[in-house]
TrEMBL record:
The keyword Cell inner membrane does not apply. This is ABC transporter substrate-binding protein. PANTHER family: MONOACYL PHOSPHATIDYLINOSITOL TETRAMANNOSIDE-BINDING PROTEIN LPQW-RELATED (PTHR30290:SF65), PERIPLASMIC BINDING COMPONENT OF ABC TRANSPORTER (PTHR30290). One of its GO terms (biological process) is peptide transport. Pfam families: SBP_bac_5. It comes from Kineosporia babensis.
Length: 531
């Protein structure tokens, strides 16, 4: 299966999933501050760790952009943190192996008062299905094989081939109202959706204000504009420093912020409430292009066998180490239950050395391994903005030195990531993570065209066993059968060391004076201000 995308789209979409990424699940929750009772009104102030730039739900790909999208746009289906699907813009749906028909709720309107219709919903799917539009969801949730039509208040999406995940994929797409869809460029600095909130002020680099509508009646689980505890406004404040965000949470200047570094312990000690989100912070990917030493599966396997997984994991997670249970770690967490089928082997430096010998990298008198006089050196990338990455990378360097491998550590900023991963391809491995919510999205990074050819496969992986299983899973008879196949496919990636799931952590989103559900990002209709 070949999925082609523009180079810019591949770079952007991958960037959205690389480095520190949040995905929802339940976490420990210390007691809320104050009385803990919902109090309507006021402003919900949430930290943004960067300026979002464009606000378009069609093309926005960065984490901060995607976190803002739900404040102004809604989907046909609401997905809870546990992966349960609830009615939202659609009140019900019926599926077949190749189609899904949604019945839309009556009375849904856009923020300007215009009606939202099944025709507009169909136009959204059609726009997303067109490759030339380069949308966020194209190629993952919406493919060129899909078509949409409207009849009355019903939307039918049809796939040319079997698709066991039509509900999860099509139901998650944020719907844009007709005016915005007719002029996509207008969505970069304005909003046009059906959501409970609408953008009323944008100050680039500073803050973005969304104001609650007074005519909203179709929220999930019966939420309306009059639901007790809703804020009057949501203010996204650009706060790039985690310590500053922590201080603002403690002083009441912020109601919500993600804090993953050393300030996490300070906030927990203060009893600040949080919702946990799994973060594959220690996941490692490999550059398998023919000119890199990591093109050889024996080298990749040796590098992983040489690592003390718990020691490195404890450092990279800042003392909050957890084993990864799946390569899928974002809501709706499809095909995670019952897994994984893979099991990581224990550290074995002797076997690692033997594999490197087989690969043609014998150890010299000085202990350094080399082939044809060239030392085995690994260029290891890590995120300069993630506090625990540097120390963990140094531990990796020390452990690889024990088996005769040299390691060049490279601290990356956003420009460096783009240059090394997508332009020069000058890297071997590192703390490089992807955080998909479904195995279909995961497959974009391991199946099909490389990023040089417009695909998402920036590692240049060619795994025939995985590819065959993925193709089979795409058209499985039902979701249960598809998940069983996808878990087999995931095992092929891990055992071949195309990916090394070294460690994950539960990254908290802290709350002060408010609470909310977290499913990938904060869910606006669930925000409740607390007295």
């Amino acid at each position: 299966m070949s999925r082609k995308h523009s180079q810019a789209g591949a770079v952007a979409a991958t960037s959205a999933l690389v480095a520190v990424t949040l995905a929802a699940c339940g976490g420990a929750e210390p007691s809320e501050s104050g009385t803990g009772k919902p109090v309507s009104g006021g402003a919900f102030n949430v930290a943004l760790n960067d300026d979002p730039g464009s606000l378009s739900p069609l093309s926005g790909v960065s984490l901060v952009q995607r976190a803002l999208v739900p404040y102004a746009y809604e989907s046909l289906v609401y997905t809870t943190a546990e992966g349960e699907f609830l009615p939202w813009l659609a009140e019900s749906w019926e599926e077949t192996p190749t189609s899904i028909t949604y019945t839309l709720k009556e009375g849904v309107t856009c923020s300007d008062g215009s009606a939202f219709s099944a025709e507009t919903a169909a136009a959204n799917i059609t726009y997303q299905a067109d490759e030339k539009n380069g949308t966020f969801w194209h190629g993952s949730n919406i493919t060129a094989e899909m078509s949409a039509k409207a009849e009355g208040n019903q939307l039918t999406v049809t796939s040319k081939s079997r698709n066991p995940f039509l509900l999860a994929s099509t139901g998650a797409v944020e719907m844009v109202c007709q005016k915005g869809l007719d002029d996509p460029d207008s969505l970069k600095d304005a909003t046009d959706g059906t959501a409970l909130f609408a953008l009323t002020s944008a100050k680039a680099g500073s803050e973005y204000t969304y104001t609650k509508r007074d005519d909203y009646t179709w929220g999930p689980s019966g939420v309306t504009s009059d639901t007790e505890g809703l804020p009057d406004t949501v203010v996204g404040k650009v706060v790039t420093d985690e310590s500053t965000a922590a201080n603002l949470l403690l002083s009441g200047g912020l109601n919500a912020a993600g804090v993953a570094g050393s300030d996490r312990d300070r906030l927990e000690a203060a009893g600040t409430a949080y919702k946990g989100t799994p973060n594959p912070i220690g996941e490692m990917l490999f550059n398998e292009r023919s000119d890199r030493p990591t093109a050889d599966v024996r080298v990749r396997q040796a590098l992983t066998l040489a690592l003390n997984r718990e020691a490195v994991g404890d450092i990279v997670t800042n003392g909050h180490y957890e084993e990864m249970k799946s390569l899928v770690n974002q809501t709706p967490l499809l095909c995670v239950a019952g897994g994984p089928q893979w099991q990581l082997p224990p550290r074995d430096t002797a076997k690692a050395g033997a594999l490197l010998d087989e690969a043609g990298y014998p150890a010299g008198a000085d202990g350094v391994r080399a082939k044809d006089g060239k030392p085995l050196s690994i260029r290891f990338l890590y995120d300069a903005g993630t506090p625990s990455h540097a120390a963990a990378a140094e531990e990796v360097q020390a452990e690889w030195k024990e088996i005769g491998v040299q390691t060049e550590l490279v601290a990356e900023d956003p420009t460096g990531w783009s240059t090394d991963l997508y332009q020069t391809y000058d890297w071997d491995t590192g703390f490089i993570q992807i955080a998909p919510g479904t195995p279909v999205v995961l497959s974009l990074f391991f199946l099909g065209a490389t990023s040089e050819d417009g695909g998402y496969n920036f590692m240049a992986v060619e795994n025939p066993e995985y590819n065959a299983l993925a193709e089979k899973a795409f058209t499985a008879e039902d979701a249960e059968s598809a998940c069983a196949i996808w878990q087999q496919a995931e095992t092929e990636l891990v055992e071949r060391a195309d990916v090394y799931p070294l460690a994950q952590t539960t990254t908290p989103i802290f709350f002060s004076g408010a609470t909310a559900e977290v499913a990938g990002s904060i869910q606006p209709t669930s925000i409740r201000m607390l007295g």
